[in-house]
NmrA-like domain-containing protein
Amino acid sequence: MTSPTFALTATTGKLSSSILSHILNSSLLPPSSLILCTSTGSPTHPHLSAAVSRGAQVRRADYDDPASLEAAFAGVDRLILVSTPAIALDFNEAPEGQGRERQHYAALEAARKVGVKHVYYTSLAFACGGKSESKAGVMVAHLRTEARLQQLAREGSIQFTSIREGLYSESWPLYFGHWDLGKDNNGRSEVKVAGDGKITWTALSDVALGTALIATDKDSAKWEGCKVTLAASKGGITLAEMAEMVGKRLGREIKFEVVDKEEHVKYYVNQRGMDEPFVRWWIIVIALSFLVSVVTKIALPLFGENNIIAIAHSSSCVLFSSSSSSADDFRYTRLFKVRSRTTLLWTIQESSSS
Ligand SMILES: NC(=O)c1ccc[n+]([C@@H]2O[C@H](COP(=O)([O-])OP(=O)(O)OC[C@H]3O[C@@H](n4cnc5c(N)ncnc54)[C@H](OP(=O)(O)O)[C@@H]3O)[C@@H](O)[C@H]2O)c1
């Protein structure tokens, strides 16, 4: 039987290139069945070379250029659509169709036109258990994209799986008062946030592995219509705890303070010179109500020992399979190495000393 043709978008990026590495290293697919999409179509990027030398094709797929998307997805059976980093599109409460989802819709329309059968969309875990609402501004474009995917599936155009990726351990600086590794390691000693709560940080490589395993599962029907959350199940770390970890690493105290939303905006805009639309968009992510209600109250029970999902579990990493009864009910089936908590500690140590 011939392998289905697979395309991955944004393969020069951290997530997509890690998914690609897992596919290659674990021989999940023959490299010749892979189409690596980048915004330029240049095959010379270092993240692509291993796959290209083994027979993968590179194509140009620019989310802002529908014709390039159609050409890139021609002949593709399964598509891993990685969410766009164009966050500025979301600012100032962009209406539906004008936020980041605009680029995702363009990719989905191209996929529909050329007959892609199954789209695996890399969503975000700021909504759990299949829920379709979230208090996080960063989640809006993902929920809109998921709604579009559901619509396409209802119409019978494309099957989909939404893979809600947990917060990468590697992205801790974003959450830690917009910590700038370049400047802040050398002197900043104060972090203000608009809320705190436990976050189950998850190594990017772990979510990439989970994504690769789901997308390459031979039984793709098992994942149809699923919203799967991939996140560490244990070991949540608060931002206050992170302040201690970073302070210890840097050898100075980091004063950590939870302030109200408006004080937070004033501090980052007036004192730290950041752009207000960005600060306001991101604040919802770190607002107390959000972290506590979404991450602690909702996510942790779901990410608990008998959880429905999760790849990282204390000292082992688990893969799951869907049950036939519920799209969001998954059971562990295999064990893998875990890196999530250690990656967080490691990235704090590494980046704090850079
Ligand atoms: N779960 C989390 O904690 C978390 C954290 C950060 C981000 N995210 C989300 O996950 C996504 C992937 O994260 P990442 O860390 O891999 O991001 P990244 O390393 O910054 O990579 C972004 C990728 O997007 C591609 N891209 C940019 N503009 C494009 C366009 N117009 N058309 C097609 N591709 C375009 C870039 O491709 P080229 O090099 O070809 O331009 C690059 O490969 C992000 O975009 C964001 O939505 C999640």
Notes: The longest strand covers residues 118-124.
